[in-house]
Amino acid sequence: MRILIAEDETIIRFDLSGILEKAGFEVCGEARNGREAIDLARELEPDLAIMDVKMPEIDGIEAARRICAERPIPIVMLTAYSQRRLVAEAIDAGAYGYLVKPFRPQDLLPAIETAAARHEELLRTRRELGRKPPDLGPPLDVVVTGSSGRRWPLRIRRASDGSLQVIALPDERN
Q1: What is the Cα–Cα distance from 124 to 129, expressed in whole angstroms?
Q2: 37 and 49 fall within a common domain
Q3: Cα–Cα distance, 42 to 46 (Å, whole number)
Q4: From residue 114, how far is each of 107, 117, 173 by CA, in Å?
Q5: Residue 174 domain-assigned?
Q6: Long-range pairs for 115-121: beta carbons < 8 A, 24 or more residues apart
Q7: Is residue 89 domain-resident?
Q8: Chain segment 72-104, per-residue pLDDT in tens
Q9: 149 and 107 fall within a common domain
Q10: 146 and 153 in contact (C-beta within 8 Å)?
Q11: What is the reported pLDDT for 59?
């Protein structure tokens, strides 16, 4: 997996890079601010991005929003801020994970794997929704007769989601 790191603190960027490479990931780019992150995401097409929230020029949340608007990828936010408002904004921008600094390497790797899996699930769902529904065949017309002899003509059709649609038809005897 190719990962882009966007972090304004050099030492944290260096630590992240080492942790990721030791775990077998490829760090394809490192950005010092949100603008660089957007440009590198466009140029390098990473599989995932790890982004700090508070960065110069463009913050991580706005950068995540712009990156996901162009080419959705899983994003893990890594920040010293844990306010609910920031978490909600990060989720709205497209983040799949949110880690609070200081982080432990054993916390980072599951967050990456979870974000990648959730993103793949989203892509799979979108592909399914884009497929043409299978040919479900013609509707079936039936007449249900009650114990009193009353008749209820019905049309039964299978919907594309697998459910049955039952439509009452006019009784032609009346």
Answers
A1: 9
A2: yes
A3: 9
A4: 11, 5, 62
A5: no
A6: 115/48, 115/74, 115/75, 115/76, 116/1, 116/47, 116/48, 116/74, 118/74, 119/48, 119/72, 119/73, 119/74
A7: yes
A8: 999 999 988 788 888 889 888 889 999 998 888
A9: no
A10: no
A11: 93
Rounded average pLDDT over 41-57: 95
Residue 84 CB contacts under 8 Å (≥ 6 apart), including other chains: none
**pLDDT tens digits, 124-152:** 887 877 665 566 678 888 888 878 888 88
Residues 90 and 111 in one domain: yes
Which residues form the domain of 160?
133-169
Look at residue 115 and tell me whether its pLDDT is greater than 60.
Answer: yes
- Residue 104 lies inside a defined structural domain of this protein: yes
Structural domain count of the chain: 2
Q: Which residues contact 103 (CB under 8 A, 6 or more apart)?
A: 78
Looking up residue 25, the CATH number of its domain turns out to be 3.40.50.2300
Return the pLDDT at 134. 60
Residues 93, 43 share a domain: yes
Residues 109 and 123 placed together within one structural domain of the fold: yes
Quick one: tokens of 48? Answer: 């995932």
The conformation of residue 148, written as its DSSP 8-state character, comes to T
pTM beyond cutoff 0.70? yes
